[in-house]
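User: Watch each token:
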Amino acid sequence: MTRFDAADTGARRKLFAEAVLAHRNRGSQFLTIEVDPADAPDVDADADADEPAPAPWIQFADETFNLDCTDAELDRLKDVLDEFPECRIEQIERPEEADGANVRVTARSDANRLGQFADRALQATYELDDDYRAWVTQL
């Protein structure tokens, strides 16, 4: 891979697909995609102002995507899954010390389709603008 960020739909999906291929070819532990903090949704008014919310992220490993989300975000993620029948929720964990859930989505498909899913999941789940910038931060 020669680039690690993209800010439009086509470029992000191509970047994510290339990252999936690189992850598979390298046999790396996991692939991490993060939304640029400048494009992340605003922090909840009830959140601690001294501690900014982390930018949304999604990880991929062993045919599974992993992400954290609130209940409202989980509902939006479930709507995205209707567009991707090859993807299904495998597990939802709700740690007592966390406000939301950690969701694992099984995704068995080719790299291009996985790139499409990652882009749609990030954009819809976290209500990101069409031109959000994402970074592949770990391969």
About this structure: Residues 5-37+55-138 form one domain. The longest strand covers residues 87-93.
